[in-house]
């Protein structure tokens, strides 16, 4: 079950205007000519020297090409959690849990290492000839009685994940060359419908969502974690 958090972002734009009005002067028209020449010079220099003695090295070359259509479908329907009515009513602890998850990925690579890593990654996903490549994830949960519902659909063209949990500080570094190309139509659809709760006390009081539907479509994704830190 997922906890949904909403963050509201407000942006305020202030426009300052200056108006001068004189009772002694009036203008039928104003012509304003502004010519400006601006020269800007920016010099930036950086020098970095790192001396480490790593315990080992994980060196990987990953080349992946996927063509065509990839589809993932998950459907959960007609789930009845019949509860005996109690004098004080049933609680959220009496609810069943329904999950419907669909994930479609063109290319995927996941590398874990406890020593330093050097990765050369190339991933290409596209269609065949004139046909457009497609990645489609469809997830649904329908007609659910007395159960929390979590629906998730994810469509990804290319995904690369590198996770380093090193045995020494000298190994806590990664060198990566990453090339990802997606030429495709990515579609994700998540649907939760016909979800009913009958005689349940305490709904919505625990800070979690009782019904959740999330859809995510990503062309290319790169994730690198070194010792638990981005």
3D architecture notes:
The protein is mainly beta and 230 residues long. It is built from no helices and ten strands. It has one domain (57-226). The strands form three sheets. A five-stranded parallel β-sheet has the order 1-5-8-6-2, with no helix packed on it. Strands 4-7-10 form a three-stranded parallel β-sheet, with no helix packed on it. The chain is extended, with a radius of gyration of 28 Å. The relative contact order is 0.23. Residues 1-25 have low confidence and may be disordered.
Task: Summarize the structure in short.
The chain is mainly beta and 230 residues long. The protein has strands at residues 57-67, 69-80, 90-91, 96-113, 116-126, 133-145, 147-164, 174-196, 200-201, 211-226.
Shape: extended
Strand coverage percent: over 45%
**How do the strands of the widest beta sheet line up side by side?**
1-5-8-6-2
How far is the N terminus from the C terminus?
A: 25 Å
Total helices: the number is 0
Q: Ranges with pLDDT <50 over ≥5 residues? A: 1-25
Rounded average pLDDT: 83
Assign the structural class, choosing from mainly alpha, mainly beta, alpha/beta, alpha+beta, or little secondary structure.
Answer: mainly beta
- Strands, total number: 10
Structurally, how many domains make up the residues?
Answer: 1
- The helical percent reads under 10%
How is the biggest beta sheet arranged?
Answer: 5 strands, parallel
Rg over CA atoms, rounded to whole Å, is 28 Å
| SSE pattern, N- to C-terminal | EEEEEEEEEE
